[in-house]
Amino acid sequence: MSTLELARKAKLASIPLSDTAVELRNRALLAMAEALQERASEIVAANQIDLEASAELGDALRKRLVFNDKKLADVVAGLKALAGLPDPIGRVMTRTELAEGLHLQRVSCPIGVIGIIFEARPDALVQISSLCLKSGNAVLLKGGREALHTNRILAEVIREATVSVGIPGDWIQLLETREDVNEMLHLNEYIDLIVPRGSNSFVKYIMENTTIPVLGHSAGICHLYLDASAESRMAAKIAVDAKSQAPATCNTIETLLVHQEAAGRLLPVVCEALRQAKVELRGDEASRRIVPDLLPATEEDWSTEYLSLVLSIKVVADVQEAVDHINRYGSHHTDAIVTQDAATARFFQRRVDSADVFWNASTRFADGFRFGLGAEVGISTSKIHSRGPVGLEGLTIYKWLIDGSGDTVAPFAEGTRKFTHRTE
Amino acid sequence: MSTLELARKAKLASIPLSDTAVELRNRALLAMAEALQERASEIVAANQIDLEASAELGDALRKRLVFNDKKLADVVAGLKALAGLPDPIGRVMTRTELAEGLHLQRVSCPIGVIGIIFEARPDALVQISSLCLKSGNAVLLKGGREALHTNRILAEVIREATVSVGIPGDWIQLLETREDVNEMLHLNEYIDLIVPRGSNSFVKYIMENTTIPVLGHSAGICHLYLDASAESRMAAKIAVDAKSQAPATCNTIETLLVHQEAAGRLLPVVCEALRQAKVELRGDEASRRIVPDLLPATEEDWSTEYLSLVLSIKVVADVQEAVDHINRYGSHHTDAIVTQDAATARFFQRRVDSADVFWNASTRFADGFRFGLGAEVGISTSKIHSRGPVGLEGLTIYKWLIDGSGDTVAPFAEGTRKFTHRTE
User: Fold this and answer.
1) B1: pLDDT confidence band, cut at 50, 70 and 90?
2) Quick check: helix, strand or coil at residue B135?
3) Of A178, B20, B169, B414, which has the maximum CB count within 10 A?
4) Beta-carbon neighbour count of residue A52 at 10 Å?
5) Which chain B residue's Cα is nearest to A406?
6) Could you tell me the pTM of the whole model?
7) Does any CB of chain A come closer than 8 Å to the CB of residue B412?
8) Does the interface predicted TM-score (ipTM) exceed 0.90?
9) What is the DSSP string of A349-381?
């Protein structure tokens, strides 16, 4: 079937799906968990085929590709937790009496059809599709091609399990090729939102080649700014965590900014700690005057996402210069300040134009699970709809409902009837 | 100056603007009101030039183009009302203790720079720019070219008035040509959201030619469905209001759907009332069997926005067929049902995939002012961010702030520290 046809089917299924009771959606999530456990050996066997075909991949990629009993246990636990969360749709957000007998409600509802493109990580397929199901959305899924066999069986198991309790089967559709993705980018009539995950260049490609709304982030150029009053031990601890706790992730810092008045006090301690964590350090001239054996940083370093144990360092005049640098070179993802001065922290948090702005905490906390949102479908640096970790709420929108009793606008226009606009 | 340069300046101004106290923004709104009154004669004189150059325009367009004492009084009243509304930014939306001493807040903030393209209606310039100012956003404005002289003086007066109280002057930028708009569509780095208003084809052009997020609606193909249990008097009253109260507006109905069991009872009464309101009626075969002198409707009618006193009529089997027709041919804007049956009304409200879905009320109520949102910058049929009338809240987003005390992710990853995720 063509991508157009799959998307059209998903759109048609999205309407009855949007109108299912939360009990049914929760039952479907539990049926998914059960079916995945029952058919574990089939899934692991399919995963084995993918793993064998990907022998040339690096360890990190193979670790993501594997779907074993441990991963199964994790996704099953995730499904059960998700079934226990409150219903994100059908929530009355506001209620207004417009005039006597005329009532307006704003009610949360699903977005419709979500197209999600994700890396070769089969557990992500389960997580993403379950978030869509809980929020009443149909989903087109395209996973990394290395996971093709695993994704096929997972999608089949999920579809069958959800159909068995009464969910319309067309709610979940698996795309398999890069051409399918390119076709998807033009299906504005059937797809309401695209969430691309993966490499910077891939996400950028998606963002630049569709007029369907996109939530995601292409780069994660995050900063840590050490203010004049930063404690050196806290600064070192946060810098090490923010750089080395998981160097290939998007919320890892790429640049360390240091207030000029504190650079002499802080940089020796912080650089020593980073070196013990095996981080390669590149500094501007001012920082190299303080720590002479830093490698020289170039202009290009300020806009580079290393995704590895490399960090650039720059001395700035004050918090204003730090903010300006971050807003200019950063990717509006996650940035943090270390300071003992609350007023400076608040200034930084107000002025830095990023999804997440932290005070005396590692940038690594930027994550849906750590934020307590449940799982996330991705992290968004968009300035509309959903910013930062996108969880269940980011997969919902609302509609406006009026209940009247034969009301027309004419008498209001003529002035014989008046709006009350009373919050109910 | 190039559009790029104007957008860059607006972006730079947007950061300090986002960090202004609401008292300052309100003072700026009142300064705008005062300055517009003081310089009324200059503005009216500029408007006279525009009106003289547009002598060939129709009455409806000239009525929108005029800026006289009445329009001035309206915008001044609007500015004063806006100054009295609560601050849409800086609002703490959620507060969570992530772990002991580690606190997360989600705080509303401006989107950044909004590009708004609007019709030749100078009062809209004041309304739109004031909504952006109140919500802390910088704005690029491009009004219809017929209003050029009026828009120039209005933008100058607004800029001077707001600068006089301490707002950064670059927050408001006026674009003047269609080429400026085309340039704007590619400035993803500086413009965060585009709101196009105007003709269907123009809005469609914008939506299809930019990857910057767009809020708006290209068509307003709205429906009224008369269910089996509809009262004929109520049906006629709502149909007449929804079609003829302001036929050129987007929330006016284009198609009337009638349940087959009630068509014989309802159509003669409703068609007679519509004819008295001078509406040209086009019907499908089934409706022409009941009201023989209807003009024949063709397939094209179901997807046509007449924007005039024309209405197409179709008999449907039941509410399910009505919903299917609306979701297929409609523009996801505003649709209404007339019925005495609450269960059918709720089914219709849940299943119709539109921004506004009304029960026993005219579609003409779909409007920011009538909804009690204050003014609106436009109406959106997008499925993300803001749906239906876009008021102040639609011009805001949020950021996530963490306050910590030196917290790192490592101990959580190692299991020596646990998240509490306690709502505060």
Assistant:
1) confident
2) coil
3) B20
4) 9
5) B360
6) 0.95
7) yes
8) yes
9) HHHS-SSEEEEEE-GGG-STTTTTSSS-SEEE-
